[in-house]
Amino acid sequence: MEIAIARCTEDDFSAYFALRCEQHNIYWTGHKNAPDRDDLYHWYVDQLKRNDRIMFIARDRKTNNQAGYLYVDLQELPPQIAEISHGVAKAYMGLGIGTQLVAFVIESVLDCYPHVREIIAWVAHDNLASVKTFEKNGFVATNYTKNMWFALAGEEKVMLKYQNSLKSSL
User: Fold this and answer.
1) How many beta carbons lie within 10 A of that of residue 59, not counting itself?
2) Average of pLDDT values for 137-146?
3) What is the mean pLDDT of residues 39-46?
4) Residue range(s) defining the domain that contains residue 98
5) How much is the average pLDDT of 127-148?
6) Dist. CA 78–CA 71, nearest whole Å
7) How confident is the model at residue 77 (pLDDT cuts 50, 70, 90)?
8) How many C-beta neighbours within 10 Å does residue 7 have?
9) What 3-state class would DSSP assign to 116?
10) CA-to-CA distance for 55 and 100, rounded, in angstroms?
């Protein structure tokens, strides 16, 4: 599956909103319901203005349909770390889109942010698709954990910190 990944613009909001309204995305982001369109729009526009967060949208090259999204949060204070999170559209799950998104961000960070020493992601211990995605991209589970409330499931889940220490920074 070939995807095109581009930095989000205001024009991408409808695609982003559609992704965030999918049931599995609601679940894995810890929410109970789909977001309110107006509230999410205002949040989205604010995110686009941030210097420490970069948002990307992935689209199917053939259909131009939204296939996924990706955030990169850049930490300003040493040690410089980039934290990432992503989501994949239900129609594109199991096609390697998540793996491509994470590979893209590694390459982008290496090229554009040479001061970043590692990339981290927090992954629910039972989100096997995400675990595979990060492991395929050289991430390793650490001993660091945090708990996150998953409203739709009505339970707390253990989130594992995965990290990729970038080779160019050694």
Assistant:
1) 19
2) 97
3) 98
4) 3-169
5) 96
6) 20
7) confident
8) 12
9) coil
10) 15
Find out whether 101 and 86 touch, Cβ atoms under 8 Å: yes
User: Which tens digits make up the pLDDT trace of 46-70?
Assistant: 999 999 999 999 999 999 999 999 9
For residues 44 and 159, give the distance between their C-alpha atoms in angstroms, rounded to a whole number.
Answer: 25
Three-class secondary structure assignment of 25-52: HHHHCCCCCCCCHHHHHHHHHHHHHCCC
The pTM of the whole model exceeds 0.85: yes
All residues at 6 or more sequence positions from 23 whose CB lies less than 8 Å from its CB, including other chains: 90
Residue 111: which CATH number?
3.40.630.30
pLDDT in tens, 142-159: 999 999 999 999 999 999
How is residue 121 written in tokens?
Answer: 């992601």
Tally of domains in the chain? 1
- Give me 33's structure tokens: 């319901």
Q: Which two tokens stand for residue 22?
A: 């999918």
